[in-house]
Amino acid sequence: MIVGERKSLEEIKDAIKPYKKILNVGCGGCTSICLAGGQKEVEALNEELRNLFKPENSPIQVTDSPSSASAMRCFTMIGREVGSYDASLSMACGAGVQFAAERTRKTGISALNTTFIGVDREIGWYEENCRSCGECVLGETGAICPVARCAKSLFNGPCGGTSRDGKCEGVRIPLRLVRNL
After folding, report:
1. For residue 118, which of 17, 114, 126, 174 is within the disulfide window of CB 3.0 to 4.6 Å?
2. Does 21 fall in a domain?
């Protein structure tokens, strides 16, 4: 699963300032599951942005998409209305941001940082298992990613921090856990 974390409100505010009408699009996929970019998170961010811009009497309008479906389904549902927006704010992964920008033919702004690919250990707790480096060697490393799971990111054999039976000392240690609640 792709795990993401929401950017700071200040960073999002600065990114959308040049635009008047913004469509905030969530995703019904991974970022929804990791509690960072589903419909509930879209609505919460929009409320925060409205409250932030209200005292400034800003003309900025932020609207949420009508669905927590995948970005593709969402844009199909919205149809022609997409053209009336100046920019799309996306609470999807990096691929979703690019898709939204391509589909709307407007500036795509990311409200999340795509942090890693991981597995869920408990609701809201994710363990990093892959960094999508594009050079997968899992078949050669006992199904342990040396980039994401080795503290030293070693590809070329044991570092000396191994047990007598040749197993890595860090295999059982989750190196990166993220809580999104």
Report:
1. 126
2. yes
